[in-house]
Write a structure and sequence with these properties.
Layout (H helix, E strand, L loop, with lengths): L2 H11 L4 H6 L2 E6 L2 E6 L2 H17 L5 H13 L6 H17 L1 H12 L7 H4 L2 H6 L2 H8 L9 H42 L1
Antiparallel strand pairs: 1-2
Protein backbone atom coordinates (compact mmCIF):
# COMPACT_ATOMS: atom_id res chain seq x y z
CA UNK A 1 0.00 0.00 0.00
CA UNK A 2 1.34 3.43 -0.90
CA UNK A 3 1.44 6.36 1.51
CA UNK A 4 -1.22 8.08 -0.62
CA UNK A 5 -3.56 5.09 -0.30
CA UNK A 6 -2.88 4.90 3.44
CA UNK A 7 -3.69 8.60 3.83
CA UNK A 8 -6.93 8.29 1.85
CA UNK A 9 -7.98 5.39 4.09
CA UNK A 10 -7.00 7.37 7.20
CA UNK A 11 -9.08 10.38 6.14
CA UNK A 12 -12.09 8.23 5.25
CA UNK A 13 -11.91 6.21 8.48
CA UNK A 14 -11.67 9.37 10.62
CA UNK A 15 -14.26 11.23 8.50
CA UNK A 16 -11.86 14.09 7.76
CA UNK A 17 -12.51 16.43 4.84
CA UNK A 18 -9.10 17.53 3.64
CA UNK A 19 -10.45 19.83 0.91
CA UNK A 20 -12.44 21.90 3.41
CA UNK A 21 -9.47 21.86 5.79
CA UNK A 22 -7.09 23.23 3.16
CA UNK A 23 -9.49 25.93 1.91
CA UNK A 24 -10.42 27.36 5.32
CA UNK A 25 -8.59 30.36 6.74
CA UNK A 26 -8.66 28.96 10.26
CA UNK A 27 -8.74 25.47 11.72
CA UNK A 28 -9.89 24.51 15.18
CA UNK A 29 -7.33 22.67 17.26
CA UNK A 30 -7.14 21.77 20.91
CA UNK A 31 -4.80 24.04 22.80
CA UNK A 32 -4.94 22.45 26.19
CA UNK A 33 -8.62 21.86 26.87
CA UNK A 34 -9.83 24.68 24.62
CA UNK A 35 -10.85 24.10 21.01
CA UNK A 36 -9.34 27.27 19.57
CA UNK A 37 -9.20 28.68 16.04
CA UNK A 38 -5.67 29.02 14.68
CA UNK A 39 -4.61 30.43 11.30
CA UNK A 40 -4.39 27.78 8.58
CA UNK A 41 -0.94 28.84 7.41
CA UNK A 42 0.83 27.38 4.38
CA UNK A 43 3.45 25.64 6.54
CA UNK A 44 0.69 23.70 8.32
CA UNK A 45 -0.70 22.62 4.96
CA UNK A 46 2.79 21.61 3.78
CA UNK A 47 3.50 19.41 6.81
CA UNK A 48 0.01 18.03 7.53
CA UNK A 49 0.58 15.01 5.27
CA UNK A 50 3.63 13.97 7.32
CA UNK A 51 1.83 14.53 10.62
CA UNK A 52 -0.99 12.28 9.42
CA UNK A 53 1.48 9.66 8.16
CA UNK A 54 2.95 9.69 11.67
CA UNK A 55 -0.53 8.91 13.02
CA UNK A 56 -0.74 5.97 10.61
CA UNK A 57 2.77 4.70 11.44
CA UNK A 58 2.41 4.93 15.21
CA UNK A 59 -1.31 4.10 15.36
CA UNK A 60 -1.99 6.99 17.74
CA UNK A 61 -5.56 8.31 17.49
CA UNK A 62 -6.82 11.77 16.61
CA UNK A 63 -8.56 12.39 19.93
CA UNK A 64 -7.00 14.67 22.55
CA UNK A 65 -4.78 11.96 24.04
CA UNK A 66 -3.80 10.66 20.59
CA UNK A 67 -2.85 14.15 19.42
CA UNK A 68 -0.76 14.56 22.57
CA UNK A 69 0.90 11.21 21.93
CA UNK A 70 1.74 12.11 18.34
CA UNK A 71 3.02 15.51 19.48
CA UNK A 72 5.26 13.83 22.06
CA UNK A 73 6.42 11.28 19.47
CA UNK A 74 7.25 14.03 16.98
CA UNK A 75 9.13 16.04 19.61
CA UNK A 76 11.04 12.91 20.59
CA UNK A 77 11.90 12.22 16.96
CA UNK A 78 13.39 15.69 16.66
CA UNK A 79 10.66 17.76 15.08
CA UNK A 80 12.60 20.65 16.65
CA UNK A 81 14.54 20.73 13.38
CA UNK A 82 11.37 22.33 12.01
CA UNK A 83 10.62 24.97 14.71
CA UNK A 84 7.07 25.69 13.51
CA UNK A 85 6.21 21.98 13.87
CA UNK A 86 7.56 22.02 17.43
CA UNK A 87 5.39 25.00 18.33
CA UNK A 88 2.30 23.27 16.92
CA UNK A 89 3.24 20.13 18.88
CA UNK A 90 3.46 22.13 22.11
CA UNK A 91 -0.17 23.24 21.64
CA UNK A 92 -1.43 19.67 21.87
CA UNK A 93 1.05 18.15 24.33
CA UNK A 94 -0.33 19.28 27.69
CA UNK A 95 -3.87 17.90 27.57
CA UNK A 96 -2.83 14.30 27.00
CA UNK A 97 -0.09 14.67 29.58
CA UNK A 98 -2.67 15.75 32.18
CA UNK A 99 -5.15 13.02 31.17
CA UNK A 100 -2.77 10.10 30.47
CA UNK A 101 0.80 11.07 31.43
CA UNK A 102 2.28 7.58 31.04
CA UNK A 103 1.00 7.25 27.46
CA UNK A 104 2.48 10.63 26.50
CA UNK A 105 5.83 9.88 28.16
CA UNK A 106 5.98 6.48 26.43
CA UNK A 107 5.20 8.15 23.09
CA UNK A 108 8.05 10.63 23.62
CA UNK A 109 10.53 7.84 24.35
CA UNK A 110 9.24 5.90 21.36
CA UNK A 111 9.87 9.01 19.28
CA UNK A 112 13.42 9.21 20.66
CA UNK A 113 14.03 5.80 19.07
CA UNK A 114 12.38 6.78 15.77
CA UNK A 115 12.87 9.15 12.86
CA UNK A 116 10.09 11.45 11.67
CA UNK A 117 9.21 12.10 8.03
CA UNK A 118 9.40 15.91 7.92
CA UNK A 119 12.81 15.82 6.22
CA UNK A 120 11.17 14.23 3.15
CA UNK A 121 9.58 17.58 2.25
CA UNK A 122 13.08 18.89 1.45
CA UNK A 123 14.28 15.81 -0.45
CA UNK A 124 11.38 14.43 -2.50
CA UNK A 125 8.53 15.60 -4.68
CA UNK A 126 4.89 15.10 -3.69
CA UNK A 127 4.55 12.37 -6.31
CA UNK A 128 7.57 10.51 -4.96
CA UNK A 129 6.29 10.75 -1.38
CA UNK A 130 2.82 9.57 -2.41
CA UNK A 131 4.33 6.49 -4.10
CA UNK A 132 6.34 5.28 -1.07
CA UNK A 133 5.32 1.94 0.43
CA UNK A 134 3.84 2.61 3.89
CA UNK A 135 5.24 -0.64 5.33
CA UNK A 136 8.75 0.26 4.15
CA UNK A 137 8.34 3.75 5.59
CA UNK A 138 7.42 2.23 8.97
CA UNK A 139 10.35 -0.18 8.85
CA UNK A 140 12.82 2.62 8.04
CA UNK A 141 11.52 5.18 10.57
CA UNK A 142 9.61 3.63 13.47
CA UNK A 143 11.65 2.49 16.48
CA UNK A 144 14.82 2.04 14.44
CA UNK A 145 17.19 2.71 17.37
CA UNK A 146 17.59 0.13 20.16
CA UNK A 147 18.20 2.67 22.90
CA UNK A 148 17.88 6.37 23.52
CA UNK A 149 21.15 8.26 23.22
CA UNK A 150 21.77 10.78 26.00
CA UNK A 151 18.59 9.71 27.79
CA UNK A 152 19.14 12.05 30.75
CA UNK A 153 19.40 15.05 28.41
CA UNK A 154 16.33 13.88 26.50
CA UNK A 155 14.43 13.72 29.83
CA UNK A 156 15.41 17.33 30.55
CA UNK A 157 14.32 18.25 27.04
CA UNK A 158 10.92 16.60 27.63
CA UNK A 159 10.51 18.47 30.93
CA UNK A 160 11.13 21.70 29.01
CA UNK A 161 8.50 20.74 26.40
CA UNK A 162 5.93 19.90 29.07
CA UNK A 163 6.61 23.14 30.93
CA UNK A 164 6.30 25.23 27.75
CA UNK A 165 3.12 23.37 26.80
CA UNK A 166 1.58 23.95 30.23
CA UNK A 167 2.42 27.66 30.02
CA UNK A 168 0.66 27.82 26.63
CA UNK A 169 -2.29 25.87 28.08
CA UNK A 170 -2.67 28.15 31.12
CA UNK A 171 -2.22 31.27 29.00
CA UNK A 172 -4.98 30.15 26.64
CA UNK A 173 -7.26 29.43 29.60
CA UNK A 174 -6.56 32.90 30.99
CA UNK A 175 -7.15 34.58 27.62
CA UNK A 176 -10.33 32.55 27.08
CA UNK A 177 -11.69 33.44 30.54
CA UNK A 178 -10.82 37.11 30.00
CA UNK A 179 -12.68 37.13 26.67
CA UNK A 180 -15.73 35.49 28.27
CA UNK A 181 -15.78 38.11 31.04
CA UNK A 182 -15.42 40.90 28.47
CA UNK A 183 -18.30 39.43 26.45
CA UNK A 184 -20.53 39.30 29.56
CA UNK A 185 -19.70 42.91 30.43
CA UNK A 186 -20.44 43.99 26.88
CA UNK A 187 -23.82 42.24 26.95
CA UNK A 188 -24.68 43.82 30.34
CA UNK A 189 -23.82 47.27 29.00
CA UNK A 190 -26.03 46.68 25.95
CA UNK A 191 -28.95 45.66 28.18
CA UNK A 192 -28.43 48.69 30.42
CA UNK A 193 -28.66 51.08 27.47
Amino acid sequence: MTTKEALIGFYQYNQLNLITDFESHCVRVYIGCILAPVPNINARKKYLKFHDLHHIMTEYGIDRVGESEISAWELGSRSCRKPLISIMNLFALSTGFVLKPRKVIDAYYRGCRSKNLYYLSDQMTETQIDALNINEVKKEHLEIYDKIKFKFLRQIEFAFYITASMIIHVSMLFIGKTLLIAEKLKNKLKLAN
